[in-house]
Amino acid sequence: MEKFLSKIIISKKQINTRLQELAALIDQDYHQKESFVMVGLLKGCNPFFIDLLKKIKVEPIISYMSVCSYEETHSTGQLTIKLDLDVKVQDAHILLVDDIIDTGLTLKSIKNLLLQRGAREVKTCVLLAKNVHRDIQADYVGFPIENEFVIGYGLDYNQKYRNLAFIGVYNPNYEA
Ligand code: IMP
Ligand code: MG
């Protein structure tokens, strides 16, 4: 195994199977909802958002936002918007898609913002949910995971490793 990994926790095949299940749930929940907008949170959502989108049969409008709250491996607790939506959210049914929910600050803040802007409904979808105490839960979760710093399939450590096809735990003793 690569030195920057301490273990692999979710394989490419497991991701693919789970995405099929999530897509089926989303199809079921959204097929009768008008104005369905899928909003991906860059950059972490990238592979997850695209792979999920390809498996969904209902037809969403897609858009992206970019926010950040993380420095290296810890949350700073403050959220900055770096890129905003290019679509109207008034009366829309929004599905916010991100790679992972940790403290929930990111999803909670953006959800509130979109509701303030007039969205009819905002649901959240993440590939991974960390096992920590928080006051917001995601509506769709790919995999619950332990409270460890993970990389791969969109998730980075200092902007690296997003291209891995699987999810692994970052080796804290690794010196690049
Ligand atoms: P939250 O606001 O604390 O829920 O953090 C969510 C954001 O932090 C995600 O969009 C990720 O970009 C980042 N993040 C949280 N945990 C990890 C991790 O284990 N690896 C990489 N990024 C993470
Ligand atoms: Mg992120």
Description of the molecule:
23% of the residues lie in helices and 37% in strands. With 176 residues, the chain is an alpha/beta fold. The protein has a single domain, classed as Rossmann fold (3-Layer(aba) Sandwich). Strands 4-3-2-5-6-7 form a six-stranded mixed sheet, with helices on both faces. Strands 1-9-8 form a three-stranded antiparallel sheet. β3 and β4 form a beta hairpin. The longest helix has 19 residues, at 12-30. It is globular. The two termini are 15 Å apart. The model has no long low-confidence stretch (mean pLDDT 94). Magnesium ion is lined by residues 41, 44, 98-99.
Q: What is the β-strand count?
A: 9
Which percent band covers the strand fraction?
35-45%
CATH class category: Alpha Beta
How would you classify the helix and strand content by structural class? Answer: alpha/beta
Unique bound compounds: inosinic acid, magnesium ion
End-to-end C-alpha gap? 15 Å
Largest sheet: 6 strands, mixed
Element pattern in H and E: EHEHEEEHEEEE
Q: Spatial order of the strands in the main sheet?
A: 4-3-2-5-6-7
Report mean pLDDT, rounded to a whole number: 94
CATH fold call: Rossmann fold
Provide a count of the helices.
3
Helix content: 10-25%
Spans with pLDDT under 50 lasting ≥5 residues? Answer: none
CATH architecture: 3-Layer(aba) Sandwich
Described by the principal axes of the CA atoms, the overall outline is globular
How many domain regions? Answer: 1
